[in-house]
Amino acid sequence: MRRTFGILCNNRYLRIGAPAWLALILGLVMMTQGPTAAAQETPSRTVYIAGSGNAALDQHVLDLFQTAFGPDTELQTISDEQATLIDRAPIITIGPKAFSHIRQTNRDASVLAFLVQKSFIQKYTEEYPGQISAVFYDVPLLRQALAGKAILPHASRIAILASPESVGVYEPLLDQLPAFDLQARVFVVDSMDRLIPTLVRALSYGDFLLASHDESIYNPRTIKHILLTAYRRNRIVIGPSQAYVKAGSLASGYAPFQEMADVAAQLIGQFFETGRLPPPTYPQDYRISLNRQVARSLNIPLPDANEITRFINDALAQHGRDEDE
């Protein structure tokens, strides 16, 4: 005898056979449990990561990449030896050392350099467009200069120290500054024994010193002497990075790590769509790091960090400037 069962639907009692009833129950169970493991999405893209050698930094960056790329991209860390086997998939290198190693190991690989300065990677991105790109780590000099202007509204002249090898880096900035009622002069440090005398001349000219990522001038051996010399002459130092603010610079811009990771994910996404990496770029979102202890020592009232950031963004927008020098 065939068994039947009943269910109440819209105030009517419906009789259904056992096979239909079992199918209904199975469907309800599947709906409540969600998709099976076989039906769940698997990553459709693979991106390889070459670490810096600093385990803590690499893990932090990898965690940021996981958030930026999402579940449809598999991130795999690789060694230099494994990089020789990479054919079409892109490689993200963390820091200049990792980029150099991967470049030596696999010259055909598509590489996105992460946490590198523009001065380091620009030669490669210009010679190998579409194959090599980058998310620049250093803050655009125009943005740093405007931070100084936001802190010292009366400022009109900026002093810059440069080595003979880096003096040409500042030409675009010198052309950009007049639109913002600023001008700058570059003082060339011919040798390290001329650093302080050249700095003194620079400080007598500028309302503040704009520091850059010229490691021959700004490094752990020299930064203390530069800062002390500047502050004894009641001059502030802007830049070159957040780390130097902790050492005694008054302020510096910086891009949050997650912002840089998001930009990296966007560039890699374009690679998967076109087969070529887009041109290198700066992040779009910048913040300001301030040393309020130094400001108090120099008796300089500091605006709020968000207020400084707004001033910079408004100034750039008003003049329609591209801060990517």
Record the SSE blueprint.
Layout: E1 4-9, E2 12-17, H1 18-33, E3 45-50, H2 55-69, E4 73-77, H3 80-83, E5 91-94, H4 96-105, E6 111-116, H5 118-127, E7 132-136, H6 141-151, E8 157-162, H7 171-176, E9 183-188, H8 195-205, E10 208-210, H9 223-232, E11 236-238, H10 242-247, E12 251-254, H11 257-274, E13 287-290, H12 292-297, H13 305-319
Helix pairs in contact: 2-11, 6-13, 8-9
Q: Whole-number average pLDDT?
A: 89
User: How many independent structural domains?
Assistant: 2
Strand count, sense and barrel status of the largest sheet are:
5 strands, parallel
Give the spatial strand order of the biggest sheet. Answer: 4-3-5-6-7
Order of helical and strand elements: EEHEHEHEHEHEHEHEHEHEHEHEHH
Quote the CATH topology of the largest domain.
Rossmann fold
Helix content: 40-55%
Low-confidence regions: 7-14, 20-40
- Give the end-to-end Cα distance, rounded to a whole number of Å: 86 Å
Keywords:
five-stranded parallel β-sheet, single chain, 20% strand, ABC transporter substrate-binding protein, 325 residues, Rossmann fold, 42% helix, ABC_transpt-TYRBP-like
